[in-house]
Amino acid sequence: MPLFLLIAQQRSACAYTTDTPHLKMLGELYDRCQETLDQFQAFIGSQLTPAEHAELLPTVGELCGRYQLEPEVAFFIARPALGALHAAKGKDDKPALKAEEAAPPPEEAQQVRDVLPASSWEVLSPHLYYTFWSLSLYDIFVPKERYESEVKRLRRQVEEIDRYQVPFGVSHADPEQRAGAIKRKKDKERCLANQDKLKLELQEQTAHHKLVMARLKESNRDWFSEKGRSGAESINHFLQACVFPRCVFTPGDAVYCAKFVQHMHALGTPMFSTLQYYDKLLRDISVHTFCCTERQAKNLGSFLNASLAQLLHWKSHEDVYKEECAKLPGFSVSFADQNSKKATYEDYVKVVFKWYCKVVKSLLQCLESTEYMELRNALHVLTRTIDVFPRMKKLGDLLEKRVAKLREEERKDLQMLASQYHGLLQKAKPGLQTQEQFCMGYDVTGGKDAGNRADRAAATADRAAATADRAAATSRPAKRAADNTPEPQAKQSRKADGPATKSPLNPAAPPFTPGSNGRGGGRGGGDSGGAEPARGGERKRERDTKARRALQP
Fold first, then answer.
1. How many CB atoms lie under 10 A from the CB of residue 274?
2. 239 contacts 277 by C-beta, under 8 angstroms
3. Residue-level pLDDT at 50
4. Strand-pair partners of 224
5. CB atoms within 10 A of CB 168
6. Rounded Cα–Cα distance for residues 311 and 308 (Å)
7. In a 3-state reduction of DSSP, which class is residue 124?
8. Which residues of the chain have pLDDT under 50?
9. Using CA atoms, how far apart are residues 12 and 32, in angstroms rounded to an integer?
10. pTM of the prediction?
11. 3-class secondary structure for 130-173?
């Protein structure tokens, strides 16, 4: 276990102990520490039972306090052992409840309280915090479709083995045929055994999932305090202390966060606003994108992909919305009364449209940035969300326009990522919807579409860049004056010639006389009388006048 703790501490300290100003190198080092921690945790889990793991590990409170580990790291290390740490003493051979299914004991609850400031527990209960961090994706999600597809694949392999026939003219006594028959028999037995294992595993996980969901349904009433009746402060604390740290930790944690919020909504958690949660989550993605390493940006993209997929599922049909959303308190208009009026389907479609516009605005800002990390992370997020975003043709065109510029980027890694996303976007183009199709026929913008909104956002960014350039150009003369630095010689000469060339004509010049070019001895032999040389336009008018006179009778 000392090695386990040293790896976890190095993950947090590498950004401060490494003497380099390059963010790319720091991010790569941080991601390698995180990858090493994941691999070592998988190794420990495969070699030790939960009881042995619990005996070797300190409590979560000690990991955070004594060993100075971050809460997400401490729970990641202790999560496999939490069941053994708090096993209940069941009677009549009833299965013991795990820590994932029970509240923390008093001493552990007190240690959990020390992780966050005391003000946080006024709107966020320690029970919710402990429940969120102690559960895993295995507890709250059963991938039935994946199990069924794997069982079907194994069944097809068995059928292919049974259909095998010995080629004509080949004896069964042939050594190669006998070896092949033995191999096919072993393969068939292996496939049948794996089918039985998968079916049994599915049954066990389904039973475990039902037990966990029953415990969550009983305990969710105490997750949010009455002081958070407005919903805003409690949602902010939940996002800050739970969702954001975990959704970028591992790919499994990214999906877990989206599924956990889905269950919070489905269970009708009191004082939890589903609409406010998604509004605060999708309000400004650019901030979270910029703060991530490359590995974290990929996990953030997976989390947004699962979250947006849930929003699209609720938007897919009005019957789905009425069945899964309209009856639950998460879509209440007012939190003063949980049984108050719920948001209509039209209201929900409009707010989803607004969220998509906010997301595309944030990502366009990232793509216009000059920061390498922000550009790269934005491309990773877009690549992970290609199945659910942008969904509208106008938003897709805007993203394609921005990404096309990055395909000409000198930095090869950015160029490769931009080309990859551009290819995915081209492949998804036939399935993109018009704004009217996406909004289910509702007028959501009062005559203004998503493309115009995003165009305004992009134009604002362009104007800001142009203003900065003009400000820089304007500041140069002032800086030269302050530094007593002379202007360049070419600019001084242009200023000296300015009054003479400001007006192209000289009002004091004598009338122009045809036949004289004002050069004293030129063609025509007339005296110029100090007149200016005839210009190109004047020569043309002279030729036109002569031509008209020649045509007169």
1. 25
2. yes
3. 81
4. 124
5. 5
6. 5
7. strand
8. 86-102, 228-229, 447, 457-458, 460-462, 464-469, 471-483, 485, 488-504, 514-534
9. 12
10. 0.77
11. HHHHHCCHHHHCCCHHHHHHHHHHHHHHHHHHHCCCCCCCCCCC
Q: Do 390 and 381 form a contact (C-beta atoms < 8 A)? A: no
First to last CA, the chain: 115
Cβ 33 vs Cβ 14: under 8 Å: yes
List the beta bridge partners of residue 124.
224
Q: How is residue 130 written in tokens?
A: 């402990």
Q: What confidence score (pLDDT) does residue 496 get? A: 46
CB-facing half-sphere around the CA of 418: CA atoms within 13 A: 21
Q: Are 239 and 301 in contact (CB under 8 A)?
A: no
Query: What length is written for the chain?
Result: 553
Q: How far apart are CA 306 and CA 299, in angstroms?
A: 11
CB 123 within 8 A of CB 225: yes
Upper half-sphere CA count for residue 126 (Cβ side, 13 Å): 18
Give the separation between CA 319 and CA 192, rounded to whole angstroms.
41
Other Cβ atoms closer than 10 A to 109: 16
Calculate the CA dihedral of residues 60, 61, 63, 67 and round it to 10 degrees: 180
Q: Are 320 and 314 in contact (CB under 8 A)?
A: yes
Measured in degrees and rounded to the nearest 5, phi and psi for residue 165 equal: -130, 145
Rounded CA-CA distance 407/390 in Å is 19
> Quick one: residue 268, left, alpha or beta (phi over 0 = left, psi -120 to 50 = alpha)?
left
- State which amino acid sits at residue 130: Y
* Tokens at 117, concatenated: 């400031």
| Amino acid letter, 536 | G
Q: Which two tokens stand for residue 237?
A: 């604390």
Cis peptide before 390 (omega within 30 of 0): yes
Say how far apart CA 156 and CA 191 lie, in whole Å: 10
Separation of alpha carbons 136 and 79, rounded Å: 8
Contact between 331 and 274 (Cβ < 8 Å): yes
Interatomic CA distance for residues 302 and 189, integer angstroms:
37
Q: CB-based contacts of 1: which residues, under 8 Å, 6+ apart?
A: 56, 57
Long-range CB contacts for residues 404-408, cutoff 8 Å, separation at least 24:
406/367, 406/375, 406/379
Structure tokens at 339: 């049984």
Token pair of 86 as six digits:
């708090």
CA angle 495, 496, 502 (to 5 degrees): 75
Structure-block tokens of residue 463: 């104007």
- What is the DSSP secondary-structure string of 76-123? HHHGGGHHHHT----STTPPPPPGGGSPPPHHHHHHHHTTS-GGGGGT
- Cα torsion through 475, 476, 479, 484, rounded to 10: -150
Closest CA to 44 of 104, 1, 97: 1
